[in-house]
Amino acid sequence: MRKVHISEVKSGDMLAVDIYGANGAILLSKGVKLTDLYIRALRQKGVQYLYIDDVYTFDITAWPMLNSAIRKQAVKKVYETMTSLINEKSFMKRVSSFDLGKAYQTIFKQILEDVLNRQELMIQLSDLVVSNGYFFHHAVNVATIAAVIGVAKGYRTEQLFDLGIGALLFDIGMTQIPEELWRKKGFLTPEERAILHQHTILGFHMLKDQDNISLASAYCALQHHERYDGSGYPRGIKGKEIHEYAKIVAIADVFDALISARYHRKQYSPHEAAEYLSAAGNILFDYELIKTFLSHVAIYPVATTVVLNTGYIGVVAKVFPDFPLRPIVRIIQDPYGEELKSPYEIDLRKEMNVTIVRAV
């Protein structure tokens, strides 16, 4: 399989990765032959990239960020919780009727087991989600990324659960903000921005008195928009004043937001998002945590189409945790855009004069 921009997809191409809807259900299954109608509908739903199978890359497999069955169940629970709270006017009464802690412990246990069962503690990125499902899938992605960082840091099980539950519910306060604000595509007015910023405080108050949810988890809701240099909100605290769980959630939140399809802006590649985080080290984010994160994320995930400094175009066939910028690449096009009759692979760990210029 290989990842291509939707503008390059043609009728008859075979979808290689499931596409998920807002509630976690599969909207379009892998193996489906795409039609012009499907392609138009996916473009309208904000999908910018697709994974397709072709004769050059049919044997390349990109592993999802999370097991599909676990993703479906986790997103379904987040969807049910958040939509119920969005539709409930008296949120404190409504949230008290949920045992959020117990329910989300069960969800995060499955996510954590999936992370721990991997051969390598590496975040691969091949999940496809329609834009109107971003809010619900985003929470699950943030929790998965946070779990990887927590495991990499050697957190105890209790710490991992506090972090994971906080990551799953960090944006719960958004359910009490007028929906038209957090779905708005244009610029927010200062008044609208002030209202939106309240979601951190609202989320904290929704979680802090919940059974089976620790105060540390609630701090993820309160502090995930605080920044290392004190430029964040709601309190403008900085450095060590910010709880480490909230710092981790902030990194996961921004990274997943950048690489996700959104109506209002370009979708970043993992490499571009990693560069943004690196540049913001010890300015917006804790640099030591960024280093831990970047050492466990595939900068050029398997199935990514890349351009080399030689002008040749290829597809990432295998990645190595110790050499994130030096994967094995299957060359499929020459510098003139002509497809090769006999594609071949090069190992960038050995071909040191060859580098990746950009992902496409």
From TrEMBL:
Residues 113-309 form the HD-GYP domain. This is HD-GYP domain-containing protein (C-di-GMP phosphodiesterase class II). PROSITE patterns: HD_GYP (PS51832). InterPro entries: HD/PDEase_dom, HD_GYP_dom. PANTHER family: CYCLIC DI-GMP PHOSPHODIESTERASE PA4108, CYCLIC DI-GMP PHOSPHODIESTERASE PA4108-RELATED. It comes from the Bacteria. Gene3D superfamilies: Hypothetical protein af1432. SMART domains: HDc.
